[in-house]
Design a protein that fits this description.
By secondary structure, the protein is mainly α. The chain has 2 domains: 226 residues, no CATH class; 98 residues, abc type-2 transporter like domain (abc type-2 transporter like fold). The protein has 15 helices and 4 strands. The protein has a 4-stranded mixed beta sheet, sandwiched between helices. Strand 1, helix 4 and strand 2 form a beta-alpha-beta unit. The longest helix has 32 residues. It is elongated, with a radius of gyration of 28 Å.
Length: 373
């Protein structure tokens, strides 16, 4: 392999990427707006859920229940009639519709067990599940306080001293921003390398490469190196400007150590992108194939849910995926300030997985390059 050939081919890849506005927009969006938006939303958390109430009792107890529903969990309740309840929910105006029947306070004071109807828009799945529990707890608390005449405050027998390490404020954006960056690094590495190879096929420039005094190894190294360099630079800017700057996430560990781990991860994922690019015959095929590979990698790697909650067979199989080790080292370095003495097993795993993927992709690339012309 001649370094000069690799350098010139790498420059050609960068120029080709520069002339592709769609890919440039995707890179900028993925490492800026997408990370910020994903980190600032509140998944699986009840936040300003719209609620409507049909108060047919008009009693002191029903008024207490209405007053107990306030932001930030719920929007200010809208008092409606029973005829409006179904139409408002069909129109998507309300997530919850509470119907307090007539005689509700009278039945409670008489020791009966009256029923309150709660209609839930289950298409808003996370809010529907969480909000139903919140509403049940709020209503039961108000009824108990009304019957007793005061709010009971029971002192616990054991005082739990909570020490939240690495995220004292339990701020979800800290975790969401960093993990979204990790996911986008994997996605862009696969997309850019696979698209660069398919672009050669669609533009008919494969014949030019075959006519030049270059080897398949030089072609593949240039594509892997150029695209890995682009993703590494973009992820560095995103980590410093978006994650640390805009989101205010404190980085506990060494950024340089994280970037070294990122480079090893890119070595593995860009090789995987080359392999997928040789399998797919067109960009639509590559997109479908990428989704079939990318979604399991991201969901089962531990960035969405802890690996400990998965079946042991899945945990064992995912040890062969580079994402699993990259997520582990990223969490250790960025959140817990781990050094190389802690994350060296993940570094070694990425080197071995990357070497295996590169060798497999090179063998596939040598076989497929002749048929790509």
């Amino acid at each position: 392999m001649r370094p000069a050939n690799v350098l010139h081919l790498g420059i050609k890849e960068l120029r080709s990427l520069w002339r592709d506005p769609v890919m440039l927009v995707l890179i900028v969006y993925a490492f800026s707006v997408s990370i910020y938006a994903a980190a600032t939303v509140m998944p699986e958390t009840l936040h300003k859920a719209p609620i409507a109430i049909v108060d047919e009792d008009r009693s002191q107890l029903s008024a207490r229940i209405v007053d107990a529903l306030y932001p930030p969990y719920f929007m200010p309740p809208v008092l409606i009639t029973q005829k409006e309840m179904d139409s408002r929910m069909d129109a998507g105006l309300d997530t919850f519709a509470l119907d307090i029947p007539p005689g509700f306070q009278r039945d409670v004071l008489a020791g009966r067990t009256p029923a309150i109807q709660l209609n839930v828009d289950a298409t808003r799945m996370s809010q529907a599940f969480t909000g139903s529990g919140y509403l049940q707890s709020i209503i039961m608390g108000e009824v108990s306080a009304f019957l007793q005449g005061y709010r009971a405050s029971s002192s616990p027998r054991v005082d739990l001293a909570l020490r939240a390490r690495f995220n004292p404020q339990l701020n979800k954006s800290w975790f969401g921003g960093a993990m979204e960056l990790v996911s986008h690094i994997t996605m862009l590495a696969i997309v850019l390398t696979g698209a660069a190879l398919i672009r050669e096929r669609e533009h008919g420039t494969v014949e030019h490469l075959l006519a030049m005094p270059v080897t398949p190894l030089e072609i593949m190294v240039s594509k892997v190196g150029a695209m890995a360099l682009v993703v590494l630079l973009a992820s560095t800017c995103s980590l410093l400007i978006v994650v640390q700057g805009a989101l205010g996430v404190p980085i506990e560990g060494s950024i340089l150590l994280f970037l070294v781990g990122t480079a090893l991860h890119l070595f593995a994922t860009t090789s995987l992108g080359i392999f997928l690019g040789t399998v797919a015959r067109s960009m639509p095929q590559f997109g479908i194939l990428m989704m079939l590979v990318l979604m399991p990698l991201q969901i089962l790697s531990g960035s969405v849910t802890p690996r400990e909650s998965m079946p042991r067979f899945i945990q064992f199989v995912m040890l062969a995926a580079p994402d699993t080790h990259f997520v582990k080292l990223a969490q250790a370095i960025l959140f817990r300030g781990a050094g190389f003495d802690v994350v060296w097993p993940q570094f070694l795993a990425l080197v071995l997985i990357g070497a295996a993927l590169f060798t497999l992709s090179l063998a596939r690339f040598r076989t497929a390059i002749g048929t790509m012309a």
